[in-house]
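Issue: ligand-bound run for NAP - logging full I/O for the record.

Environment: standard queue, default settings, no custom constraints.

Inputs:
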Amino acid sequence: MNTDLAGKTCLITGANSGIGKATSTALAAAGATVVMVCRDRGRGEEARTEIVDKSGNQDVDLLIADLSSQGSVRAAAADFRSRYDHLHLLVNSAAVFLTQRRLNDEGLEMMFATNHLGPFLLTNLLLDVLEHSTPSRVITVTAPSTTRINFEDLQGEQKFNATHAFGATKTANLLFTYALARRLKEPGMTANACHPGLVRTNLMRHAAMPMRLLLRFLNLFAASPETAAKGLLVAASSQEFEHVTGQFIHNGQVIEAPHIDDLAAQERLWQVSAELTGLNRTGASQTVPASSRPA
Ligand SMILES: NC(=O)c1ccc[n+]([C@@H]2O[C@H](COP(=O)([O-])OP(=O)(O)OC[C@H]3O[C@@H](n4cnc5c(N)ncnc54)[C@H](OP(=O)(O)O)[C@@H]3O)[C@@H](O)[C@H]2O)c1
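Outputs:
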């Protein structure tokens, strides 16, 4: 695919590693202005230099944000808004897998906070910028997770299983995407989830040894981050997907979307997330009720 993204501004989380870094490189190579969101300045700068070298595009910026911290996400959104007028593409790629239950500064379970609440808040805080930049797209990178979210124990206080907790965050990415797509006001805005397939990255570096051994074997069949990025780029920029919204996309194809019919879970998660991030209080979600949009 010959992609020309000159004049487009793209914000991408998890941009210093794996799929996020390869996607940033592909976007920069296509001529976009790329704003990398990274939590560590050193790792971010190192990746930025590599992306500039590989793409030949100097227009690669770095924004520091820890997605597990709502204060940090709010500061990053404000920082972006002070530097840029437009946002044509937001890619939520950052995620973390942890074996132990850990809490962030707000007392929320770390994987739920980083993998779901971080992108939920960041996206909502930038919705109006996306809205006046149409055509614009939100892509959330996730997996075909069938894990059901336990709304009675969202923070894993009663029972914590790392694999289940991580799977629940990937389900949350899907539920969030479908609920977001229903809320988008502008016809030129879309929100989709993307499955990159099995990709050789650092994601499971904290997993227990048996799982790491299994993954080492599975990685023999896994794709490179660059291959995964090609698939994401189709969803993020091709005309074919210009009006596709609320879908699950893999490698340039709409695929079966788990939980897509579970409107109750989608809306319940949206409400809980708005409450947990304070969006209900500030009204910053800038959204219309789901009932006023066609499904
Ligand atoms: N790899 C696969 O096979 C696969 C399959 C399906 C879906 N996915 C999805 O693809 C996405 C990208 O994962 P990946 O495989 O590319 O993994 P990765 O190489 O580990 O990249 C994850 C990125 O997220 C960042 N991150 C983690 N916690 C953060 C925080 N608190 N604040 C800001 N950034 C944070 C990491 O930054 P640091 O470097 O600072 O830790 C890193 O840049 C994830 O959403 C994952 O669920 C991956």
